[in-house]
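Researcher: Go.
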Amino acid sequence: MPLTAETILNQGWCYMGAVLTLGCDMIPKINFAMQQNYIPFIRNLTVGNEGDEDISDVRLTIAFDPAFAKTFTYDISCVPSGKSVEISPLRIILSTEMLFSLTEAVSGTVSFSLSKDEKELYQKDIPVQLLAFNEWSGLAFDPELIAAFVTPNHPEIAKVISEASVYLKKWADTTAFSAYQRQNPNFVKQQMAALYAALCARRIAYNMPPASFEYIGQKIRLANTVLEQKQGTCLDLAVLYASCLEAVGLNPIIIFIEGHAFCGCHLEEETFADCATDDVSAIEKRIAAGAEELLLVECTDITKENVDFDKSLKHGRDHMNTPGSFICAVDIARTRGSGIRPIPLRLEQALTAENTESDGTRRIRMSAPSELDMSLYGKVAQGSNEPMTKQKIWERKLLDFSLRNSLLNFRINKSTVEIMVSDLSLLEDKLSDGTDFRILEAPSEWTVSMRDAKTFEIETDKDLVRNIAEQELKNKRIRTFMDAAELEESLKKLYRAAKVSMEENGSNTLFLSLGMLRWFESEMSEKARYAPLVLIPIDIVRNVRDKGYIIRSRQEDAQINVTMIEYLRQDHGIEINGLDPLPEDEHGIDLPLVFNTVRQAIMGKKTWNIIEHSFIGLFSFGQFVMWNDIRNRSDELKNNKVVSCLMEGATSEALTGDFIADTDIDSKISLTDIAVPVDADSSQLSAVVAASAGRSFVLHGPPGTGKSQTITNMIANALYHGKSVLFVAEKMAALSVVQKRLANIGLDPFCLELHSNKTSKSVVLAELNKSLETARVKSPEQHAAVAQKLAQEKAKLNFVIEALHEKRNFGESLYTAIERYEQCMAEKGKISIGRDVLQNADEGTIARFEEIISEYVVAISEIGVYAQHPLIRYGGCEYSTEMRDSFKNGLDRLAEEYGRADEALNLIAAAVGLDGNISREKLNAVSGLIDACGEDAPVINEILGTADFDAVVSKLKTLCETGKAYNALCAEIENGFDKAVLSYPAQSARVKWKQAEAKWFLPKLIGQNRLYKELKVYSKNPAAFKKSDVCGVYDRLIELSEKSEQIGQIIPTLNITGGILSGTATDWDMLSRAVHKTEAVYGTAASDRFSDSEKQHIMNVFVKCSPQEIAGCAKNLEAVRSYTEKSDRLAELYSVNTEFEESADWLTSVNSVFKAISDNISLVKSKAAFNLADKRLCDAGLAAVSRAYKNGTVSADNIRAAYHCELYYQLALMTIAADKRLASFNGKQYDALIDEYRRTIKEYQRLTMQELAARLSANIPVSDGTSAASSEMGILKKAIKNNGRMMPLRKLFDQIPTLLRRLCPCMLMSPISVAQYIDPSFPKFDLVIFDEASQLPTSEAVGTIARGENVVIVGDPKQLPPTSFFTSNRIDEDNSELEDLESLLDDCLAISMPQMYLKWHYRSRHESLIAYSNMKYYDNKLYTFPSPNDLVSQVRLIRPEGFYDKGKTKQNKAEAEAIVNEIIRRLSDEKLRNDSIGVVTFSSVQQNLIDDMLVDAFAKNPNIADFDAKCDEPVFIKNLENVQGDERDVILFSVGYGPDENGKVSMNFGPLNRDGGWRRLNVAISRARKEMIVYSVLRPEQIDLTRTRSEGVAGLKGFLEFATRGTNVIAGRTDMFTKADDSLVSEIAKGIETLGYKTRCNIGCSQFRMDIGIIDPENPETYILGIMLDGENCHRSATARDRFAVQPGVLEGLGWSVMRVWTLDWLDDSNGVLQHIKQAVENAQHPHEKPVWEVKTKQAPVFETVEKTPVPNKATLYETADIAPVGTPEQFYLPETVPVIQSLAVLILSAEAPISRNALVHKLIGAWGITRSGDRTDKVLADVFRMIDKRITIDENNAFFWLGKQNPDTYDIYRPADIQGNRRELTEIPSEEIISAVTEVLSEQIGLSRADLIRETAKKFGYTRLGMVMTSTVEFAVDKAVSGGKIKNNGDKYTL
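Model: Structure:
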């Protein structure tokens, strides 16, 4: 062994405070081969100084005795104190001559010394052994040195090769050793065999090697020595053969086993990875039959005679049968690559030609080597190109990788049988061909025990096994290694266990394993594990005749061990493809290819190998039934719409469709359509409705949202509609919650729980018996009436809310209108808008109004007080800079003319005698008079004084117009005719013309020509005058005559003289001017603007005025008119109001207006904007707003509010008046209706429970007699009676599918129990419901999904995924990289499966308990309820003094102690102990610590422990991974993690750091109902989020902050859900505060809020009264149930006193409402004493029952017709008898129909004494039957007569016998009657085999024994019932 450093370091020398030490590693044996291959024998030489001072200039000297190496010296400059110096390089030169010359070993010494200044400080001598030249040092030191003795270049080797070429020529037809060039393993074998034969020919003798040579070494005879001395040990011969192999270019290996060495050779040009390997599997895997990569040669066979090469190979292989003796193998070619060279030859010892024996070249007879079996050479199974399917992935995930699984860790026990087999492939082929084999004990010649309990390896001569196995296999027998008794016991166990597995689980677990994989868990593992490779399903069959057992193939597909394949892939990274399915050959499995594929895959795994053994055993694991369920149901899985979508990874049309929204439930769903016996909110109802509609979907159920409640309603509703339900949950706790709820509503007898796969059979049978004996519940008569009442009440309640909140024509709801009105109520009455404006106002109108008002407000904000604005008379609406400048210029010019106009006006006033200023009206009157007086015409004085002045003036004007028209007409006529024509008698001529027109042609022509010519005479242009112009001239002449006549009639009536009127010759223009002038004078005289004196004065002035004076006045008037025209034009152009009619100084007023504008021209822009806004306002009908502003009632500050107040008040009043739902509203009546509605809901739920129980109990069959053994009823009764003996549950369920479905239409199971108990052929469930789907892997669920038509996946993706964080035995809690498994919920969401959401949270009795989770993880979408003590958080943080013991125990004792103390404190307190307690920890370590400490505390307080044990909810202590689904009143939360003892905080929080860790936190912090106390030594500020990206850690930090500071942390986030301006709530709250109370509005953290809370004056931390309005919070609720039942119920349960305030009441009488509120507060302050009721445990309801009677009996008496003799046979044939026969036939049919024709004929002829029918009787009866009203049916060859009114298709009775007990033959009974009996039998016994159904049916007719004819008759009826759809043939059974 090498000299270690420790040996030398024990020596030291002290020098001046320095202690020197020396250490090294040294090989104690040295030989020539080491020197030749530069192997250092001294390594790692160090010099150390253990003293306190450095030492310098030290010399190291190494001397050798004898001088086998040169003395070595080395100077060390300094050895520092406390340090060491490594001496490198260490070049020690060994003496080649000396080591080469040694023939024997000698001893030597190596001397080490240290000196300074020639003074020795240290000296040590170490002994060493110098080996002989050819001596090998053994395996202890550098075993690869054996390669140095392999000398391929020795001359003698060349001779051997030459001799071997003769054999090679003989076998391969070549003398050339070409090594691997041909790339043919067979040729390599031939080269090896040729060399072997050549050496055999040398007649070498074998010598025994020295003991333990492999370890201590030995002298090796080199090649020449062995050949010269003709002798050698096993190692000598192995080295010689290896030298020969290397000489021809092959790669040899030398193998060492205990006490032996032999040789091998690679068949391909390759080497091992290492020079030497101690991995025996590296050899074993390369010598497998059919895939050899190595050939092992027993070299000692060279010394034997008649041992050919193949036998030598066998002997070499046999050495590997005892792998425990293997030491190592040295690859010669690999060592050459590492520098190990052959040692040089000693020529003096080399053989010469002279001393070589003559027989050295003697040849021997050697058979040619056999061909290698290359069938598997280089072959492995190829993986298919098919992609990995979801199904295969699911199968993989169900596999069990624990060492408990015999598929990975096979162990021999009494339930395993190893068989003797020589050829596994042949055995598999014969089994595949259908051969049966007897299993026998070990043969009598077998005496050695062949089984080892630890390794089960075969440790004896294999040849014997092979011979026995081959012989027995030919005789269809298989031998084992057991004696007869042991084999009998094992086979019996296997037989029984396999039978139980098939019956209980429906899966075969009995297999024949072919081949074993030997594997190790890691490279450090020493214990080998064994996994079967190929599994063939077999049956063990008892051989009764030979009293033994046989095995036979089940003819099912053989399987690769997929568990092993997947385990290798996942845990060892070994990918093996192409074996699933297994590759096949012409007989079955290609087993050698399978083995080779696996062998090649594990080639690189040290010590792993394939063992070709075979066992019979049970191979299964925990989830095997689920794995088997998926693997064998591929097609069925694909046919399921949900599973197929999961496989495809996308949803399909089968899953899509519309869901009824929450808000549509009340309007679209009738109460009679759904059965909801448990309280449900709208989101829950939506889910129930969707499930009822046959939809498959995901139901999101966040914490506390009533998942189990919803599931209960889903199940109840499905059962109500006659559907079957399978409820599945992996955890028993989830199943139990639903089961209890179902029991509470009376459904327990109809539900069967089978959660565990180890469910007691007797318990199940007892449950089925209980169901069978369940009493018949009476259907409640008032159920429908109460449903109708509830619907009516719901409609009334919804009417008001809908009316209040529905969007009206004006664009907003009535509630919003009232709210807007209340907001502006202070401005009421300031504006009054007429209802006519709002009558038809729509949304667009109101929006336009709002826009106009907004513009108006902006405009008036710049105007200020309207009455004080300088531009008040400016009305322009347009503005531009150009316009402003132009306006200013006009104003300036107008200002310049003002003085002249003013002066002229004064002169006019003076002229006309008017004192003072003259108004505009007077000026207009005077100006008219001046204008008139200036005209050239007289005043008609005659008419000035007339009373009817206006009438006379009118006649004058008419006269003027007529005269002017007369003159114009004359001028027109005279233009074409002579003036004389004016006197032509046109009127008479026209008459004559018309008379001629009526005459015949010629007279007409003559008459008209004559008249034409008369008129033509007057024409100035006769040629142009045509006959057609005559009538036109007549018309004008007649019109002229009429005008002249009118003039002549008017003039005499006027009495005007003075010559102004001259008939038609009057000057009409002069007359017009005279009339105008006369009017002006009269107007002045008649004007009321002047006083009488002024009138008289003016008249005198103008009568007396001279023309000159008139002209002066006209000139002044022109000046005034110029100004007024310009001012009017300017005013009109720029919309300036200059109306001052009543003003005496109007001109000054007008000037002042324009001057104000001119002086404030900059204000024109803002005034124009106002004018435009004002115009739009008035145009829109809102002039009232304008008026209010202009008269100063409102200003810019309040005009909008005043407008809104009036607008919305009027809209509200109009809406209320127009809607009958609102006009008669009364708040008290509405409150009473709500109370009644809530009572009706409770009553309807109770009745629904009873109706549901009635329907289900009516389905339970009742049999009043014995049942056939094969009937489902008979099978169940028998099983119940004998407690299921010999009847596994799975088999029982398979045999009673119809009865089971009727007894228990709801089954509650786990995924594994579904796979175990429910056969895939079992009728599909209508609905499958999964709970906690986020924790259920998809692989475990798909088999269950496929058993249903529709599926509802209930879970929360924000809660725990499936995981094994705390349960895996391969990780610890600090491993945060393990990913969660995918869940069923995740997969369903990934394919976009339809989703629904539960929105209302009920668990937390204080909102703070869920507030953080709601905000952080649910975006505040959960509706949570505030509690009356909402002002104080119920989540608080306690910081114990302590630390987290991170490095050692990973515990936090301080937190644990604090929690245990709190538990004891609470359980000791009489009040607090009523609240249940739960503890949640972050780690299982902390969980266990608290559990241990609590156990100790309970031990000290046994009374407390007893109390806790008896609680309904005892204390639980759980961690993040297993707390989901649990809840308690008080949760104590131990964080555990935190600062360690040194104050350092790690950011590793166990499972919280993982992806999805936040989901664990979400679960943990949402378990409390009343209070949560967080115990944490960790402060939130100590969590550094820059050091981790984990969402879970970030969530923890936020939660700790929340626990520290309460809801203020999340207040900002929740404000987003409050209304921006909930003014009505605020107004009511203000009103309440006027009563002296403090209030808070919108109380709560979620979307649901308490509108107003009145703070308790005596306890400011609580609310004494909550007020709910009918506002947005109310309207947001989807249904009447939500707003009037669920929400108030929850709030009252939380302790609120709730009062409702109705908007309409507030609008009508706010003071009255406030008084009601005050009274409610006073009542709450002084509540009435309530009786204390005893708390009762909730029990299942008790329903009224009715007598349980069997199925209504369809049997009735056969009524026979009473027939007396009628006549003689002779009379029968008389014609007059026919009516008698007919009446008798009708009588018989009326009593006995349906009746066979034969029976009817017999009865009829019997009445006449005829005993047999014949042709004569048939002829008579045929005529009779034709006359009868009847129906005829045909059964086989029989005809049956029915009354015409009878319907055979609906006939549902049967008649066994008449009153005397007389029976009919079955052939005389119609099939319809027999079918009635068949259906009754099946109603009683549910399902029957064909034979039993026929027999039981015959019994109904009184026949216990049947002949062939009767059997055939009933069979006909049965088949007819099947074809008619009345019964169903299920293959082996018939059911209804």
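Model: The first strand starts at residue 12 and ends at 15.
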